[in-house]
Design goal:
alpha+beta, N-terminal domain of MutM-like DNA repair proteins, Helicase, Ruva Protein, domain 3, 2 domains, four-stranded antiparallel beta sheet, hydrolase, metal-binding, Znf_DNA_glyclase/AP_lyase
């Protein structure tokens, strides 16, 4: 799932393409909805995006926002969505179908070479969501966002941790508490903080809360720097290469050399290092535990 660093990387990349310093801003020439389930709004017509040039490309939490014609195209890439940029899309409209293509946005250019991007989504479970609104706060997911991870000071963070009645991994992933962190970076943050993903948030010691706060800042700052300036096509691979434990089940922990382990759930999994995070204890695989009952 694209998280704050990758979505910020996409926003920065699109800004260079759509609002360049040395040329007029781009103008949207066409929007093709190729998966009818992707568009979640109907009040604002798609043609409204053609009423004026692109004026802003922003990120809020894990949402990507393009503003044009006074309205906002808000995109949430969910678990398996991605944005693919092309400096020259082929002429002609596409036919809606059941494949990975969900949305195509074209920008004015040469008749036979218009730049633009496609939103795609792998797999059969379709969660990618696009909204066209007059105010981003009209999008329910944005309205529920907590403070951005980089905007939270330590005292506020400590208060959020103390008030959470659940596991610390769940707190880090809860967008209404802290915006921008998902499954991958929560694994990395907890590994850097030497904390079990199953640790009870409210029972963390003050020094553990301090470690967690510092790890969150350090991991996200590193990830943001890693994503900065990269083309959209490189962001996913660069994210994978930078991971220490997430997605590395069975590999060696780069910190201590122990084997990275996994806990599987119905539709997701987490990775951790027993030596670094759980004093050598192996966490129960929740999926297997259910099967053995």
């Amino acid at each position: 799932m694209p998280e704050m660093p990758e979505v910020q990387g996409l926003a920065d990349f699109l800004r260079t393409k759509l609002i360049p310093d040395d040329a007029p801003p781009a103008v949207i020439s066409d929007v093709e909805v190729l998966s009818f389930s992707v568009l979640k709004t109907a009040e604002v017509p798609l043609d409204a995006l053609k009423a004026g040039p692109v004026t802003a490309v922003e990120r809020r939490g894990k949402f990507l926002i393009i503003t044009a014609g006074g309205v906002h195209l808000v995109m949430h890439l969910a678990k398996a969505g991605w944005l693919r940029w092309s400096d020259g899309l082929k002429p002609g409209r596409l036919r809606p179908g059941k494949g990975a293509m969900a949305l195509r946005v074209r920008f004015a250019g040469d008749a036979d070479k218009e730049p633009g991007f496609d939103l795609t989504e792998a797999g059969t479970k379709k969660s990618l969501a696009v909204y066209l609104v007059r105010d981003p706060s009209e999008v329910p997911g944005i309205a529920r966002l907590g403070p951005e991870a980089f905007d939270v000071d330590f005292d506020t963070f400590a208060g959020l941790v103390a008030a959470h009645r659940g596991q610390i991994k769940g707190l880090l992933r809860d967008q209404s508490v802290i915006a921008g962190v998902g499954n991958a970076y929560s694994d990395e943050i907890l590994h850097a903080a030497h904390l079990s993903p199953f640790a009870n948030a409210a029972k963390l010691k003050p020094e553990e809360v301090q470690r967690l706060f510092e790890a969150m800042r350090a991991v996200l700052e590193s990830a943001m720097a890693n994503a900065s300036g990269r083309p959209a096509a490189e962001l996913k691979d660069s994210k994978r290469r930078a991971m220490n434990v997430h997605g590395r089940t069975g590999e060696l922990c780069p910190v201590c050399g122990d084997t990275v382990r996994e806990v599987s759930f119905a539709d997701s999994s987490l990775q951790y290092c027993p030596t670094c995070q759980t004093n050598g204890k192996l966490l129960a695989d929740r999926r297997m535990s259910r099967l053995l009952k």
